Each structure stands twice: as C-alpha cells, then as structure tokens.
C-alpha cells in the first residue's frame, strides 16, 4: 500500500496561477465554485486570469433551477428566488445565441440540459443585468451600442441521473438532477474556430470532475449518485458505492481530526473543503481534496450534499518537498547562528573552566538536554576533571557533577576510544532501565533512571592535534530525539571550536602564570624595619595580563633612614613591567647613595630620557629619617606627577602630602638637568603612631567616574580607620571599600605605621 507524508495544512481552492492552463486547474476552479450558497459570498473561482464560473443545478422532473452558486445568482441581478423555472431563469438573463437571436422554443442548450440531454458545450450570449464580465472586468458590448451588460459564455451540462429510467434505484425516486456550467468567453472577436474548440475541450474537461451526491434524508447520509469520474478516481463502480457513506475511502492513516471537521460541517449544513489521505479500491493511497456543499430547496430545507473530489497528490508532495526544503534551510541557518554564537562566547573566555562552562550552556537546549564537559589533565586521558555541566532541567545538574549515573560501559568505552582515536562516537539508543546500565550499582541505577536518558554522543575536543577534553551530549525521554549522524556532524563542529578556545585558554593560563611570576619577582619582599610596620598590595587590572608598570618599594638605608617609593610606568604589558623593574633598580641605587628625594627623581628622569627606559612614568619618593628619642621621624618627599600620599597623624587628622608637584618622569626634556629646573622637596615631622599611605591611580582614576569623588572616598576611608589599625588592616579595608567594580588599571598600595621604636 502506498503511503505519503502528512501534508499539514493545504490551502483549498484553485491551484497556483502558473498552472492555470492545465485541465485539472479548470476542474479545481469548478469545484470551488460549487461551494457558493445564497447566504455567503466566498471568493470567486478563477478559470482564466480573473474570469468567473457560474454553476446551476436543475431538477429535471420539475424543470426548475434548485441551486446556483454566487456567480450564477448574480446573472439575473439577484432578482429571482430559488427554486425558479428554467424558462423564467433564461428569460431573466435574456439567453440568446452568440448573434443575439433567440433560440427556437425548447432548443436552447439550457432547455436540452433540463430535458436530460448532455451538452458538451455551445456558445451562448447573456444580456441580463449581471452578465459575466470579460477578462478586463468590463461588460461586452451587445453590438447595437447599448450599455446593457452582455457576455458570451460557453454552456455545458449533463444529467446526474438518467430521466428515461427514472433512476429509482440510484437517486431519490424520479427527482433527477442536472449540472450546468457557464464558462465566460472573452468577446465576439475571439470566437474563431480554433478558440471555440479549445474552450470546448476546457469545458468538457471541467465536467470530468469527480462528483458525488448524498442523501441526508436517509440514515448515515449514503451516496445516491456518483459520476464516472469518481469511478475512475477511486476504482469503485457505481453499484458498490450507492447506498454507502463515503467513509469507505478512509484508511489507517486518514487524519481523524479532518474527518471530524467534515462531520461537524455536515451537521451544521455549511460548505467545507479538506484534504484527506484516502484509499482506492486496490488499496493505493492518494491525497484527496474534498469539497462538500449543501443543496437547499426554496423553503431552506436540506435536500442533498454535493461533493467534489480532486486528486491533489502531486500538489501535496510538491508542497511537502517545499516545506522540507524550507525546514532544512532554516535548520542550516539556525546551526550557523549557533556556531557563530558559540565561537563568540567561547573565544571571549580566558579561563579554562569558563570555556567549559560556557560550552555546556551553549549546547543546552539547542543540541542536547544534558551536556557534560570533561578536561583531560594528562595526555593519555587517565585523569579527567568535570568543569562544565548543563541540563534542561536544572534539578538534573546535581547528578551530572559526578560521573556516577553516566559512568556506563556504553559511554566509558566510547569515551576511551574517542581519546585514543580523536573521533566522535554516536550511541543511538541507551538502555531505558537503570538496572541494565548499572547492574552492580543500585545508587547509580536509580540516578540513571531519574535522568531518563535516551541517546548520546561522545565528542573529543581537539586542540593543535591532541585531545584536550571530552564533551558528552544526551537527550532525555519523553521529548528528546534519537541522535543521528547529522547531529554528530554539528556536535563535532561545536566541539572543534571549543577545543581551539580551550587550547587558547590553556596557553593563556600558562603565559599568565609566567607573567605573574615575573611580576612578583620584580616586586620586592617587604623588609622588617625596626620602628615601622609595613604592608603592601598589588592588584592586576581587568585585562588579565598579571603584569604592569605599577610598583612599590621600601628600602632601609645605611644611615638608619628608610626610603619609601611608589611609581607607575605608562602601559600594562611586559614592556611596562620591564621598564618598571629598571626604574625601580635605578631609584634604589640613587637612594642608597644618600641622595635627597628631589635629586633621586631628577637623576631617574635623566636616565629615563637618556636611555629610553620608558616613555613616561610617575613616582613619589619619600625618605624617613632615623627615629628620634620620642619615636618621631623627619619625612622628606618629592613627587613627579604622582597622586599625593596621605598622612594620618596620631590625633586622627588627615594630611594630603601635596606641597610640591613636578612633571612626570620623561615628560619635560629639560627638567632635572643641570641647565633646567630641579624638583622641589617638602619636609615635615611625623610623630610616633602616624600612618603613611602611598597608592597609584588605579584607585582614583576610573573610567566614567569623577576622580575628585574617588579621591574623597579614599581619604574618608583612610581617615575613618582606628588609631590602632595595622597596615595590613589598612590596605585590606582600602581595597574592600575603594576598589572599582571594573578594574581597568593596576593598583599598588603601600601602608607604613610609625610605632615609635627604633
């Protein structure tokens, strides 16, 4: 038995305009025309361009028109109420031959059809107020200059039962019917012989539509008549279908919802069109467009149902193929969007764990219901760390953190093979029951049951020719699909991108660790100085380089003094860090020689400009003299464009050390030279218990924030610290309160407390 795919909704009515020249289009147009009734005005059927078709049904025994579609009702100007005599209807539309001459009595095509004769097709003229317009929508001139609506039509018709026999066995006693179809012609000038034969053939083909008439007055609304076209379409002869409801055409794959809609429309006595999968007598399936319309008598009583059937299998298959192609194209676009989003998300992550976590979140729910990402620590894959998990149902993520419920041999063996061979594996169907997956582990079996696993893919993440990790995708019952090789291709593409991002993140982490080691090697270990408590912090900026040009230093000097310096070389890279290391070494050497702070900065400026150590830098250098009998120390400082240090006196008063400022190192060529100006110094006495705070501009110069407000916040934080706050407490509280939400610059922070001993 042939089977066809489900077409989904299929539009009823005429086929597309590009197929109007095919005879089947004529037939479908005619079938749609039969749907019109007196209470509704459906869209007019089209036969050629925008012409319209009129359809009549005649009661042969009573010689009356008992049914007319909307177009036919307009011909006499909607002035006649059905039923109406055939002669009265002909007079109302002024039916004549094409030359405008009346037909001899009883010899018009309409009279002959009403007498039960089959008329293959003859041209006639209509002169009524509602004559059918031509292709341009204008009435046809009658030839005498009159403006009355005139149209030329091709009239064809046939009896639905043989009046000679009375058809008592097939159709409701002697009340036989005839169908009349009026096909508009373009105009008198077009009635050449070839065109008349062409239109006649069109009309004859239109009458070849499959028609049925049922009798709703009898139980189960059985068929009372079918035309030969129905027999050819379905393979059922007339004597096998009369007296049976037409549901015998249905089969196992017929849409029951569509059948129910038809039944409801018949109960409500309204027209309906549906597309059903029906079956011929030999069992072959075909798509059948069924149009059913009620026929009412003059008093509004239901007399019959007229059905028209069309084999639209080819149209349905073409539509299904079109939909499949559109779906495939949309799926391809969705996959490209997913790959682009995944690439963007993962390449912006610098941390290995972040890459794995983002990848799992990207995969769910687009590719999988569950996803785990394992990082291989060793090249042979002996050790694995699960760094990424995601689940459609968040409650399932707790079961994915460990490999218990997923540790089946069906997955572990492909995982090991994927590591060895570096290629993905597909497991189309997983065991449905946990006992089959974990026969020796009841706990894992129960967790497996909770996960409702259906299908899985194990895909290696490759980076520069080696397996870095494994991704496992799962679908779940009841809605998860069974994975196919097409899914495996997409998963492999995603995992390949993840592998590159993971490899880059691993390399970055190695470089960052090396940079951090370099940075810490350049920063000094704080010495223990009698009479001073010292603490410092260095915080890297958000760019993640772990290196920069900020530095701090505390240097005990030979004469018992202590030097303290904080500086910032322009830049946030290895070059800035290298320049910082050189500058710190130069400053330490000049400070060790006993130079005053201003002279130390001047000589550093000369080397910066002469040896091209750095582009520019800021620095502040302070010298604390030896402790006096009361524990106080003399403080002398010089500042080269650096934020002013803060002094908190024992009484709690905060002093900003900004007495003298000078340009940055390397900013002014003549500064610090013999012929140029020298940096000034400031000197004050710091009592025992005083607190000094040095810092770089990463705390105060923040993009999008006011620098003065940031400086005020820092000063207020330092001033509010208690007198007994240790330097460790100071640097921790300052960072906690004043650290920006986004750290775009490095921070160096140094706190010194004078304890009075020495």
Automatic annotation (TrEMBL):
Residues 315-346 form a coiled coil. The keyword Coiled coil applies. SUPFAM superfamilies: GAF domain-like (SSF55781), PP2C-like (SSF81606), PYP-like sensor domain (PAS domain) (SSF55785). Residues 533-754 form the PPM-type phosphatase domain. Residues 270-324 form the PAC domain. It comes from the Bacteria. Residues 223-269 form the PAS domain. Keywords: Coiled coil, Hydrolase. PANTHER family: STAGE II SPORULATION PROTEIN E (PTHR43156:SF2), STAGE II SPORULATION PROTEIN E-RELATED (PTHR43156). This is PAS domain S-box-containing protein.
